[in-house]
Design goal:
Helix content: 10-25%
Number of strands: 33
Largest sheet: 6 strands, mixed
Strand content: 35-45%
Structural class: mainly beta
Shape: elongated
Radius of gyration: 50 Å
């Protein structure tokens, strides 16, 4: 009768049964199983007697999981009342430590100090909350469960408490939209992986100005601060985020409680005392012990316009056959300010020299494709492509009127949109085969450059390069000592405020040029500059280079060619004769010269010596002696009149 009763019990109590909603795994070693099977067959093991004989009062309501010659486990229920255990098939496997995962429960302050088997293992009884907590990793033997009835099987359970301390006392400052992360110290034993998902906890707090505290709320939309508790390795991590719209101020955050996580059982062996069998096990109880008393200062951010936008990691060196892909990123420091809305590549048709026209498109956002537009499946060799990117602002951020935008470190023009900015031509690419060998540029040769002007002259740009040059001029420019500028390219020239419309006297002007290397070439710090056949010194105003190799891909050069226009000299004005001279007392009027051809000879010599004017004479005439020109003209006229009078006299004599 006893044997049949135990067999029935053994079938019901398997090695794996569900206790408190969690699998408990109990068993015995294979070696012990054979020896104990002979003994247990004669034992009477009523489950009611086992419950009443348990040394731990709280364990009286728990299920006993037993199989032939395997340990019987008493579950502690101080933290919660568990449903009845479900039955699982029996197995001969040896017992292993299993996690008993239960819903998180808060131990009341008064109950936390009571000597119970599961909550605090009855190790401290002082009135202080923190002092009342059992020591971390405390080991508590719960005694031996005796079973009578012709023989005995007793279960010896040792309880080990693991406490993960979560203490936070320092003052913390939270800026709106930003997070603060704090890692609590590691704890020996850590948190079992099976329990980790049960430990993650998110709480929401509202800033209460009246009490000066952060009050817990259930609705995230009503909160100002979000607190996330989660296990990381052997410790807990707290992340605080100021998400709400509360005004700035200091608020106290408090939390003092021990939170039960769950348990895990480990079979440790079997002992024999006479006719009794003693099954040994260790139960590990896990708790989170919060001790938070911190002042949280909330800093409300103001709407400040952004002055710099950066887009990095854009791929612009696709080989023929490659497909476009989204690669653009933004700096981590700006992640809360703006984001990539979409990237775009356009295939440009240059058949019209006056204008490039897009004929095919690729968008990282499929919703942006124009209706019926041809799509770029892959890049084709020899075709020209243009890259664009749009940024979307986050939160209340705005873009300042003086905002600068950079793509891969290069300045780019951008346009404000409703939700951000758009850079319509941030970069471009001529799709070509990869370059096998790069070559350095030793000399930059510029010919035909106009490098000197007179005061009042307007700037002209005439520079050119030899055919087949391994570099490409992008623009010429002049800068004045008065801060004035002029550029040969309208793209840059149109944005100059202090513009050089004409060169001014007394201002020193310096010549500059912007260059790019041809495909497969690069500049070096030793590259020489030759302008109009003469080597010229220069200073690098700006450049793009590779830090590792030292190769330079663009050069803005301020050369040593300068000039300072002089003011145009002005001639003394001729005296204006008085139309009605006033006679002076005692001074006789000057006699008129006799009308004789006395000056004819002199005048004739002057005419005979006159030679055709040279180019230099013409220049001089524009700024020469006006009086000399007048005298010469009068002399020519006098000679002509005298010759005509002589001829008339001869005709009359004949």
């Amino acid at each position: 009768m006893n044997v049949s009763h135990f067999d029935k019990q053994a079938q019901r109590e398997s090695t794996c049964s569900l206790v408190h909603g969690t699998w408990r795994c109990v068993g015995a070693k294979i070696a012990c199983a054979g020896a104990c099977a002979l003994m247990v067959g004669q034992l009477l093991l009523p489950s009611v007697a086992l419950a009443t004989e348990c040394a731990d009062p709280a364990a009286g309501t728990d299920e006993v999981a037993a199989a032939p010659v395997t340990p019987t486990v008493a579950e502690d229920t101080a933290a919660t009342t568990a449903p009845a255990a479900s039955t699982a098939p029996a197995t001969d496997a040896a017992p292993a430590a299993q996690a008993t995962v239960e819903p998180q429960q808060t131990i009341p302050a008064d109950a936390a100090n009571e000597p119970s088997g599961a909550a605090l293992a009855g190790q401290n009884a002082s009135g202080d909350d923190n002092a009342a907590m059992p020591a971390s990793n405390a080991i508590m033997p719960c005694g031996v469960t005796d079973v009578t009835g012709g023989g005995g099987v007793r279960v010896n359970t040792t309880v080990v408490d693991h406490y993960t301390n979560c203490e936070l006392s320092d003052n913390i400052t939270l800026e709106k939209g930003q997070s603060y992360t704090h890692d609590f110290p590691d704890v020996e034993g850590g948190i079992p992986e099976a329990l980790a998902s049960e430990v993650v906890e998110v709480k929401y707090y509202r800033a209460d100005a009246a009490s000066g505290t952060l009050v817990e709320v259930q609705d995230a939309s009503m909160s100002d601060v979000t607190a996330r508790f989660e296990p990381v390795g052997n410790h807990m991590r707290l992340t605080l985020t100021f998400t709400g719209g509360a005004a700035g101020g200091s608020y106290r955050l408090t939390r003092n409680e021990a939170l039960y996580i769950g348990s895990a059982l480990e079979y440790t062996g079997t002992d024999y005392e006479g006719s009794s069998t003693i099954l040994n096990e260790t139960r590990y109880d896990y708790y989170l012990r919060y001790a938070i008393n911190s002042e949280i200062t909330l800093v409300a951010s103001e709407n400040e316009a952004l002055h710099n936008l950066n887009v990095n990691d854009v791929k612009t060196n696709y080989a023929p056959g490659e497909a476009p892909r989204a690669t653009a990123t933004i700096p981590a420091a700006d992640a809360d300010k703006y984001e990539i809305a979409y990237e775009c590549w356009e295939e440009m048709d240059g058949s019209d020299p006056a204008e490039l026209t897009p004929v095919a498109f690729w968008y990282s956002d499929p919703a942006k494709y124009p209706t019926g537009a041809r799509r770029i499946e892959h890049f084709e060799e020899g075709k020209f492509y243009m890259y664009s990117v749009e940024l979307r602002l986050k939160g209340d951020n705005t873009v300042g009127n003086d905002c600068m935008m950079y793509v891969n470190g290069h300045w780019t023009h951008h346009i404000k949109t409703v939700n951000g900015v758009f850079a319509p031509n941030a970069d471009n690419m001529l799709c070509e085969q990869p370059i096998d060998e790069w070559r350095a540029i030793d000399v930059i040769e510029i010919n035909g450059a106009t490098t000197t002007f007179k005061a009042g002259d307007k700037p002209v740009f005439t520079a050119n390069v030899p055919t087949g040059s391994n570099f490409l001029p992008q623009c010429e420019y002049w800068t004045g000592s008065d801060g004035s500028e002029v550029n040969s390219q309208e793209f840059w020239d149109q944005n100059i405020t202090n513009h050089i419309d004409a060169f001014k006297p007394g201002v020193t002007y310096r010549y500059g040029i912007y260059l790019k290397p041809a495909r497969g070439f690069y500049f070096t710090p030793n590259t020489k500059l030759v302008i109009n056949g003469q080597e010229c010194g220069y200073q690098v105003a700006d450049s793009v280079s590779d830090e590792d190799s030292g190769w330079i891909y663009t050069l803005w050069l301020n050369t040593d060619l300068t000039f300072t226009p002089e003011a145009t000299p002005t001639s003394d004005p001729l005296p204006t004769p008085d139309p009605k001279p006033t006679p002076q007392p005692g001074v006789k009027p000057a006699a008129k010269p006799a009308a004789k051809p006395v000056a004819t000879t002199t005048t004739t010599k002057t005419v005979e010596k006159t030679t055709p004017a040279k180019k230099g004479d013409a220049v001089l005439a524009t700024t020469g002696d006006t009086i000399a020109m007048t005298v010469a003209a009068l002399g020519i006229a006098g000679a002509t009149v005298a010759a005509a009078g002589l001829a008339a006299t001869k005709r009359r004599e004949h």
